[in-house]
Amino acid sequence: MKRRDNDIFLLWLLPMALVLLCFVILPLLVTVVDSLYSVSLLNVSDRSFAGADNYLTVLKDANVRTAAGNTLFYTVVSLTAETVLGIAAAVALKEKYRGRSVILAVLSIPWALPPMVNSMTWKLIFDPSVGILNEILLQWGVIDAYQVWLNNPELSKWCVTTVHVWKMLPFIVIIMLARLQTMPREIMEAAETDGASAVQKFRYFTFPYLRPVLFITLAQGTIGAVHLFDEPYAMTGTALDTRTLLIQDYLTAFREYNLGTGMALALLISVSILLLMVLYAKLAGRQEEW
Amino acid sequence: MKNEWQAGWKRGIAAALCGLMIFALGACGSDSGESGGTQEGKEFAGEEIAVLLPPWYEEGIAATIPEFEEATGIKVNLEILDWDPLRDRIVTACSSGKAPADVTEFSWDWVGNFGAAGWYAPLNDSLDDAFWADSMTKDTFKYGEDYLAVPIYNDFRLTYVNKADFTAAGIEAVPAGADEILEAARKIKASGVEEYPVALPLSAVAATTTPWFMLTKSYGGELFDENYQPLFLEKDSAGYRAMNWIMTGLSEGLIDPASLDYQGMDVVDRFKLGQGSIDIAGWAGNVTEYFNSEKSQISDSVEVIKVPGAEGVSRTYGLLEGVGIPAASEHKGAAAEFIKWINRPEFVESFFVDYGIFPSSQAVIDKLVGEGKIPGGEVVSEVLGTIEPLFPQGAPEWYGNWESETAAVMNQMAKGQLSLDAGLAAIADAAAKLQK
Prior knowledge:
heterodimer, A: mainly alpha, MetI-like fold, 13 helices, flat, B: alpha/beta, D-Maltodextrin-Binding Protein, domain 2, 2 domains, five-stranded mixed sheet, 13 strands, disordered N terminus
């Protein structure tokens, strides 16, 4: 009986396994093989074995290193901001009050907008001549002259990160809010009866309760940050200060027509994400369940 | 058996008579000025083609499509994409053996790569000999013996000045030399007439490279020698002087720091509003924008001049655009009809007059100049004689990526992250890396 149940379960998994095989495993294998060949996009059938050359080219490229540093910056800063702001917003939106549903609806707009629309909107906000940011800051006396934001080397990465966090935040908040709304009321009531302060309630009850979904939001946030392309590309073109690994990969594959090296870089990016996911999964596995 | 044979025979006669009647009716129908079984010019009627172009053609092409559809019966789906996504669409589709559209944009620097890859169909037979004889820029799109595209936009660069700013600053005559015009910009700034007299883009986009390339030419030099070794590293070279011109302009506050965020169109939009006194590398087609009082606030005071050069010499280069038919297109005949349509002299003329797309047809240019329809027509005619290819030795395969890298490096130089020498060395390194 047990064996038969197992067989049925395997049968249920078959469609998904087939989809994964066709659309994930096989393309991945093709990418692995192509990354070992010198392949030009202009003539994909004309290829020669390059071994590890493509990987060495990628690792030696100064622009790749710069793009990797930028991507690391986006990942660390945006994950921190998304987590802190996400928890704060979820806690603030947990209780039901007048206007809450309107706030939730408005909050989801950045997530719903296409990335290019987000980017172009923010490009106008940051515009050095007619941007609203300069206008507001000038009126408030924060700046005494219009500033160049997107091409200021000290600010450009922060600008891109702001736009990315603005887009990702609604998603993070909704996941955290969904978790918080399943939290048993008795726990908080007991804490209040025992005289726990707001900080203590957050530290000993709310945050531990959020931990299981924290790894989901971290995973999503990491994928989003490493996959950053539209925002920096639309706002600052191929500028090195804001160039991400994905933009660098695009330039390699579609501007240099160097598909082999592009595949190698794409694989390295994928492996990096995979390692981070394994790390998150391990950490998540250690968490105690409520 | 006999009855069966007779019945079959009768049916055969009846069918033949029906066929004859249908044929006769068809022949009667063709008397209304049409010949043959299909209407003349409508041999592709019922076909549907996709046309993929950048935004600057949208208005003009969209306006002529209904007329084309009416005349040919071919349905046209116009798709407009910005430059980079458009190019990516073409490369990704063609590399996988698909047609990105039936008619697409074709830039001058794609000829070597796309020709070697065999992605575009030759158009030699699509247009008649008279057309090819009249087209002054057709050879730009020649790969071997094949024309891979038909010129649609004879894009070259001119310099525009707001003469009122010069006069207000006490400069009577606009200087012809590059160094002298920079000096004039200093005077304009010092007089308080215009805070940032020189208008050019400095963001990390392809348009940023154009003023440097153009000034290198006008200073009398080239970017690379015949073996594609850089010629811009020596301090007295044209390329070095040209880059120095731009970076000096920025460091002295003659160029708006906001230019770091500007793309090519941002400069045009602001120049039309009277921001800036010198559009150093303006599009030739902008004569229809800048001189048009409905579109420009400087129409009364703008002048077009030859690109400021050195030692009294002026040179510029062409950034030609054409339209081609991907080899994988399944509607090559209908696509060729569309290309023929937009190359009729009357359309080419209105494409310039109404939409600023500068023609490649010598006959149309002569007519426009003769009728005074090109503002600054004499200067424009003179400049036409100074247009050269950016790479006299042939556009290299790596040009596209080198242009991107050059724009990124110029953007870094403008931000002060790289010195003039370090920046030019980085641009040379990028070329060397791409040539490997």
